[in-house]
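Example record for the data management plan.
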Amino acid sequence: MNAPLTAEADWHHPLAGMASSPVRAVDHLDICRRQAVGRVLAAPGEGAAVAAILAQIEGVRTAGVEEWLVVDAGTDGSLALDLAERLGDLAFVLDASDADICLRLSGPNSRRILAKGIGIDLHPDVFGIGAAGYTLCHGIRLHLARMADTSFEILVPRSYAQSLMDALKRMGREFDLSTGFSA
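Corresponding structural encoding:
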């Protein structure tokens, strides 16, 4: 009989084997080592109440109509439990920490890099700081959030992380995009 998996010891990052850039360039793609991701879907008729509670929490991104993602750099496994406790019967909460990989693209050319593969308008007047949503990049569905003027957070399903990473590296080649695991 197999022994049960432990949260940290047996977890394998799907991008662990990808080569990192030896020097961090002005345009850089950070691969987050591990993050907690909670998916929240409001129960019918409870969207406003859920939004009010989530407004008090850091790391909340819009994911659709009455649907949100909450991203936290913590890896202790308590994010989804904390969300479920706070929201009670107002929402359904799913722990997506092992399902999604987080990437952070930053630098003065980040918008131009993303524009090579994403079919949404990333101009600051249209997709401003705090804007978020699902889109496609080279046929891969991902969640994109604008974190700062020249910084974007990307959540991609674990099984597509390597393909997206390859696409982003090609898209950023013109700008000498560097890649590496976050500290």
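Summary line stored alongside the record: The first helix runs from residue 47 to 54.
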